[in-house]
Specification:
Elements (H helix, E strand, L loop, with lengths): L3 E2 L14 H18 L10 H20 L1 H12 L8 E4 L5 H12 L5 E5 L8 H12 L8 E3 L1 H6 L4 E2 L1 E5 L11 E6 L4 H9 L4 E5 L4 E2 L5 H11 L2 H12 L15 E5 L3 E2 L4 E2 L5 E3 L4 E2 L18 E6 L4 H15 L6 E6 L8 H11 L3 E3 L2 H6 L7 E6 L2 E6 L7
Parallel strand pairs: 1-4, 2-3, 3-4, 7-8, 15-16, 16-17
Antiparallel strand pairs: 2-6, 5-9, 6-7, 10-19, 11-14, 12-13, 15-18, 18-19
Organism: Enterobacter cloacae
InterPro entries: T4SS_TrbC
Protein name: Conjugal transfer protein TraW
Length: about 400
């Protein structure tokens, strides 16, 4: 048994008009439904022909709502407006009815496909999961399991203040319209009784016919709004920021044992033609192109010079930081280097943002985290590494105190 939550959504200001064809289809469906309504109501549970007629009518309308474009759109808007039309008879209940009272409601609705038990919310002192389980446990005792929903909007729509209350809606309202109430009664839990009275000509509010109870469950929507209003969003934001570093997965690399320089050719083979916005093809499938442009030459479409030095380092390694302090002035003066991008392999998780701020303050520049993609692209193996470009190749230099290049 699946407990359904039904909460009203937004509303559309204007409805699409039904075409003449749509109206004709609806009229046909209503004629089918009327055939069922004319049959003897007391034999509702035993009358096979009536069951078949009702099933035929429901199947007809269901098919229309999934195949007819106009009705399909109207049905969608109806759902978004919070109009409930899945069941004709609503039996409003609450845990305040007690074990016997609830058992009476569940027994009465069990086996009634057109009826549904409606709760306003979950009991106080329970979270959503606990409340749902409590209601499910009660329903699971019945075979077949009765239809149950939690829908506080329906309590407001039909002004339900005491339970049990049964509300019978018109059978097939036009899509997009709130179904009218045919009849309702309080103090009783058997939908068959109300259906029989309607068949005998009774309409409207039939009053209180038995004992009623106040609704013990608070409105689920009101509870949600209250909880949202009580949330300290600034504190949540602060906590999220504080948790940021504890969730980070760092890509650490060992310290370079010696100085080393390697060149990387970034050339790639094109798998399909590449064109400029005006349609000019500058690279054909099968061509091998290099995205780097030599700063001394005129760049071809799709290429550009690499005018920065990317420094990859471990800020928690004091020796690396000392080495960079010596090397950075030289790197900044190298030909073609217009700016430096700093990429760290890790930060101190315990210190979090303080660790990050300390490193950025040290370089007076933003510092980024090393990613697996960058490691692969530049074949990084050690830190500190400095990535620059020479002509049409990348140059990766691993720095160390001892030894030479």
């Amino acid at each position: 048994m699946a407990l359904i939550f039904s909460v009203a959504g937004g509303a559309y200001a204007q409805e699409s008009p039904l075409t003449e064809q749509d109206k004709a289809l609806i009229e046909k469906g209503k004629q089918i439904a009327q055939k069922a309504q004319k049959m003897e109501m007391p034999s509702l549970l035993q009358n096979q022909h009536m069951d078949e007629a009702q099933a035929e009518a429901k199947a007809f309308f269901k098919q229309l709502q999934t195949t007819n474009p106009t009705l399909k759109e109207m049905h969608r808007k109806q759902a978004e407006k919070g109009i409930y039309s899945d069941h004709r008879i609503l039996v409003f209940a609450s845990l305040s009815l007690g074990e016997q009272g609830l058992d009476d409601v569940l027994t009465a609705v069990s086996g009634q496909p057109d009826s549904v038990i409606v709760f306003r919310g979950i009991p106080e002192g329970m979270n959503l999961g606990q409340g749902v389980k409590a209601i499910q446990a009660l329903a699971a005792k019945k075979d077949p399991v009765p239809n149950i929903i939690i829908n506080p909007t329906l309590f407001k729509t039909y002004n339900i203040t005491a339970v049990p209350t049964i509300v019978m809606l018109e059978d097939e309202p036009l899509p997009g319209e709130q179904p009218n109430v045919v009849a309702q009664v309080s103090g009783l839990s058997d939908p068959v009784w109300l259906a029989r009275e309607v068949d005998n000509g009774e309409k409207g509010d039939l009053g209180v016919k038995g004992p009623v109870e106040k609704i013990s469950e608070p409105d689920l929507i009101d509870v949600a709004k209250k909880r949202l209003a009580n949330i300290d969003w600034e504190e949540k934001k602060k906590q999220a920021i504080e948790r940021f570093w504890t969730k980070q997965n760092f890509n650490e690399l060992p310290r370079a044992p010696k100085s080393r320089t390697r060149e990387i050719d970034p050339s790639v083979m094109i798998t399909s033609d590449i064109s400029t916005p005006d349609g000019t093809v500058f690279a054909h499938a099968g061509d091998v192109i290099n995205p780097l442009c030599d700063p001394k030459e005129v760049c071809k479409p799709g290429t550009r010079p690499f005018t920065q030095a990317v420094v990859v380092f471990d800020p928690l390694d004091k020796k690396q930081m000392e080495l960079l302090a010596k090397k950075l002035p030289e790197i900044k003066q190298e030909p073609g280097v217009q700016r430096i991008t700093y990429i760290a392999t890790e930060f101190d998780k315990d210190k979090g943002w303080d660790s990050y701020k300390s490193v950025t303050d040290n370089f007076d520049a933003p510092v980024y985290l090393l990613t697996p993609d960058l490691i692969t692209r530049f074949e990084l193996e050690h830190t500190p590494s400095v990535i620059t470009a020479r002509g049409k190749k990348f140059v990766v230099r691993e720095l160390a105190e001892e030894g030479g290049e």
